[in-house]
Design a protein that fits this description.
The structure holds 2 protein chains of 2 kinds. By secondary structure, chain A is an alpha/beta fold. Chain A is 31% helix and 24% strand. The chains are: A alpha/beta, B alpha/beta. At the A-B interface, α10, β22 and α13 of A face α8, α10 and β16 of B. β22 of chain A pairs antiparallel with β16 of chain B, so a sheet runs across the interface.
Chain lengths: 462, 426
């Protein structure tokens, strides 16, 4: 079993910032990331063998790599489980091993929220994030004619990445009505630089002739074996579609995503308490101002602790790195107090912008009305809403009971992908709040491991 | 929720559902109260229906024995009483008709297989010695088994390791989907008029004149004519609310589940480091540990590794299979590994349906019938006296120091043998 002072899970902005901050105060740490290169989703770098030019912002990654005296990077490794306290099982290729760490920082990021709708399982329907990966890391176009749909500024970023590959973007459908700038609180305008960034995307896309249509959502994806067309409709304030205003567009690719869901599975396995905050993605680890979860010496930073974007993730990562350094007695209390002051101030400055954006892009109940009895709601097990609805009537009121009654979440994804949206459907069906339905209950391993790799772990404990 | 029910059944695992179904078939009004605590045994069961295999200590028994190593008492696990084997066989025989009846009634297929059979895999000389012993034992007790050579075993199960020396084949030991079994029984009970109250915890019992008058829950009270305790590993808590001590304790079992694979295994397999079976949906389940650790439903890395290594040793082709998830459940264990069913002396309308330990799934159909017969005072479908809680009181009565009921209760609080597996020989 490997022993380390500090283990950081996730090589995105939060994890990289935590590593450099802790290392700059003399802490030795291990940084685990699943990808061949650091960066996470936002700074995704092209693989080493790939010379395709990407819009990389890799200064953070370079900083981490230069600190190789103190930061050990474990690439293409997955943290698959946490056992008794802070023993983390890492899986790499054909082996699994335990790493015993004094302090653990979880910076696992977030994944896309995709609500079910008729036809969403057709080949050709994907998340904006996966289209962006194709474009950014492989320079591959996801299709010929493409429609982007959902909510939030990420759609614009993806569209911008797609401009660099050969694909015709038919339109971008943003569910929220034309962004209600005038209703924003005055404080939000203090973050003018963030709004400017958004505006840059908008003007870039406008110059490329791409239409952004507000107040519309996809109501169905159509086709027999592959996607051939998409129907979309105008929505009201709660995103209830007006079926009299449906338009159909011939496309071969549809990217749908309504923001992000924090990846909290490791925190759950570690026994961290969760709380429900729908405006920042749903279930998040309960934290104090030091980024500490309810389990001693387990910290959580970045989108995995509540979706707030790259700037906040970077700041939270730095703060987590500082607190870890304090816990490991690399710095004293006074040092921590003075070092964190500018970080706290900057986090506070970003708050109004965050809150405004949260309010604009929060998930509205109308999305539930897209689902009919025949819509697949658990993709792995190909369960239709009718089956899950019946199970709800027989007391399947949370993830665990639905799972044993109807196999919801029994497939390879363990409910990661479908449960966030299904929880809203189940809540509506049983007349309660999504928070009463609860989160999914992940079981280790949270990433695929072969039986042989697990068998090879025998004796790893001694 | 203030309503009256002829019978309140507490616990929505396979036993509670079976009791509720049997009672509702007899025309009684039944309320099934359930709180899905993590780790109920039904959802951590592999669903093996191994009446003979389990009775002679295969499945978890041999794994526990092998893991205990030097500390193991004796060469191999001891078989349970032959009465118990007959009870399990009798219950197992009900599956074909039960399965058909539940499909008719609820549309749910409980995936009860026939013809799968169980193979006890012999890899070492010690395993072979154990096999000789078992064949003698089951021979005396008239069970249907046969000894297979390595070649014969590989014909039945081609992907077994060539290190295999031979096997014992139990053609009547098959499998079912335990979750669907519980769900179908529950929906069947509801179709018969039973009421299912989900995610509701019992907070107390109102007792009067040596009987249970009312079950108090987090959602109000239910007046009842009788109470059935089917709360599995948690049944001791419910019993305490009735002022009773039960010799039941949680025994953890950890289990590993692969992704759905194409047809890989044709038999259920039991070896000294794990058991394996492939379910109807394609997953291979690999179990299981046997440990006392209170209500901890976590898994341990080293145990998962050991189970995985056992599986790869038995079926090397599984090396590349992906592990989908691992988890643990709490079996309701008893000191003599036998269930606790039926009435108690202290309360007239209280009935146990607990202590199913490792065999709750196969025992579920007959357990439901027996407990329902006790409640309705009908003739028992099987002689169930060996399963009364009072068998432990008898032990206490025999002991010279404890004669009064108070002493009996006190001594029951520290139940008997500390080992999760009693090694009682009949």
């Amino acid at each position: 079993m490997t022993k380390t002072d500090l283990l950081i899970v996730g090589g995105g902005p939060a994890g990289m910032s935590a590593a450099t901050e802790a290392a700059s105060h003399g802490v030795h740490c291990h940084l685990v990331d699943e990808n061949p290169a650091l960066g996470g989703q936002i700074y995704r770098q092209a693989g080493a063998a790939d010379h395709h030019q990407t819009d990389r912002d890799d200064t953070l990654a370079r900083k981490v790599e230069r600190r190789d005296d103190r930061i050990t990077i474990l690439r293409e490794a997955s943290a698959v489980a946490v056992f008794d306290g802070r023993k983390v099982a890492l899986s790499r290729k054909n082996s699994t091993e335990l790493v015993d760490t004094d302090v653990l920082i979880l910076a696992s990021g977030a994944y896309e929220y995709v609500p079910p709708f008729p036809g969403w399982t057709l080949p050709g329907v994907m998340t904006p994030g996966s289209a962006q990966i194709l474009a950014k890391t492989m320079g591959v176009s996801p299709g010929k004619r493409l429609l982007l749909s959902g909510s939030g500024p990420f759609l614009l970023a993806v569209a911008s990445s797609l401009l660099k590959v050969d694909v015709e973007i038919v339109a971008i459908l943003e569910a929220s009505p034309r962004w209600p700038w005038v209703t924003l609180p005055f404080r939000a305008w203090k973050n003018l630089d963030k709004w400017k960034e958004g505006w840059q995307y908008v003007s870039e896309l406008r110059n490329a002739g791409i239409r952004i249509r507000h107040g519309r959502i996809v109501v169905s994806a159509n086709g027999d074996n592959d996607l051939t067309s998409v129907s979309h409709a105008a929505v009201d304030r709660d995103w209830h579609p007006d079926r009299s205003k449906v338009e159909t567009e011939d496309v071969d690719t549809l990217c749908v995503g309504y923001g992000f869901v924090p990846r909290v599975f490791l925190a759950q396995l570690a026994g961290c308490e969760l709380e429900y905050r729908s405006e920042i993605g749903g279930w998040i680890p309960r934290r104090n101002a030091d980024m500490c979860t309810t389990v001693p010496n387990i910290l959580s930073a970045g989108d995995g602790a509540g979706v707030a974007g790259v700037l906040v993730a970077t700041l939270e990562g730095r703060l987590a790195g500082l607190v870890a350094a304090r816990r490991l007695e690399a710095i004293g209390d006074a040092e921590l107090t003075s070092l964190r002051r500018p970080i706290d101030a900057e986090l506070k400055r970003l708050t109004p912008f965050r809150k405004a954006l949260d309010r604009i892009s929060r998930i509205r109940p109308g999305l539930n009305s897209l689902v009919d009895d025949e819509t697949v709601v658990c993709r792995c097990e190909e369960l239709r809403w009718k089956q899950v609805r019946e199970s709800v009537a027989f007391g399947g009121t949370n993830f665990r009971t639905l799972k044993v009654q109807s196999r919801v979440g029994m497939g390879p994804c363990q409910g990661r992908f479908c449960w966030p949206a299904m929880a809203r459907l189940v809540a509506e069906q049983s007349g309660c709040d999504p928070k009463d339905v609860g989160p999914s209950s992940p079981r280790p391993p949270i990433r695929p491991v072969t039986l042989g790799a697990l068998a090879a772990g025998v004796g790893g404990e001694s | 929720m203030n309503r009256h029910s002829d019978v309140v059944v507490v616990g929505g695992g396979v036993i509670g559902c079976s009791v509720a179904w049997s009672l509702s078939k007899r025309g009684l009004s039944v309320t099934l109260v359930d709180k899905s605590f993590p780790g109920r045994a039904t959802s951590a069961s592999a669903g093996g229906l191994w009446p003979i295999g389990e009775s002679i200590g295969l499945g978890c028994g041999v794994i526990y024995h092998a893991a205990a190593g030097e500390e193991s008492p004796g060469e191999h696990p001891e078989p349970l009483p032959s009465d118990f084997m007959n009870f399990l066989c009798e219950s197992n025989n009900r599956f074909p008709s039960l399965s058909a009846e539940l499909v008719r009634q609820t549309g749910l297929d409980i995936e009860a297989e026939s013809g799968t059979g169980l193979l006890y895999l012999l890899f070492t000389e010690k395993d072979e010695k154990h096999a000789d012993y078992l064949l003698d034992w089951v021979g005396i007790n008239g069970a249907r088994v046969s000894r297979l050579s390595q070649r014969e075993a590989l014909e039945k199960e081609p992907l077994l390791s060539p290190d295999l020396r031979g096997a014992i084949h139990f053609p009547g030991d098959n499998q079912v989907n335990p979750m669907y079994l519980a769900e179908a029984l529950k929906r069947g009970a509801c179709a018969n008029g039973a009421r299912f109250v989900s995610e509701t915890e019992v907070t107390g019992l109102t007792l009067r004149n040596n009987s249970v008058k009312e079950v108090r829950t987090t959602r109000g009270s239910i007046a009842c004519g009788a109470l059935v305790n089917a709360a599995g590993a948690w049944s001791v808590r419910l019993a305490r609310m009735a002022g009773l001590e039960l010799a039941v304790y949680p025994v953890r079992g950890q289990i590993v589940c692969t992704h759905a694979l194409k047809k890989t295994l044709h038999c259920n397999l039991s070896a000294s480091h794990c058991y394996l079976l492939q379910k109807a949906h394609g997953e291979v389940l690999i179990g299981s540990t046997t440990e006392r650790c209170e209500y901890d439903v976590g898994v341990r890395f080293e145990d998962l590794c050991a189970l995985s290594a056992g599986a790869v040793r038995a079926v090397p082709a599984l090396q590349e299979a992906g592990v989908k998830r691992t988890w643990a459940g709490l079996r309701p264990g008893t000191p003599d590994e036998l269930p606790i069913l039926g009435p108690v002396a202290q309360l007239g309308n209280y009935f146990n349906a607990t202590g199913g330990f490792r065999t709750g799934i196969v025992a579920a159909p007959l357990t439901g019938e027996i407990v329902a017969a006790y409640v309705t005072e009908d003739a028992l479908p099987f002689p169930a006296e060996p399963f009364l809680q009072s068998r432990f009181d008898d032990v206490n009565r025999d002991a010279p120091s404890s004669t009064g009921p108070r002493e009996a209760r006190t001594s029951a609080e520290t139940p008997f043998a500390p080992s999760p597996l009693g090694h009682r020989r009949d």
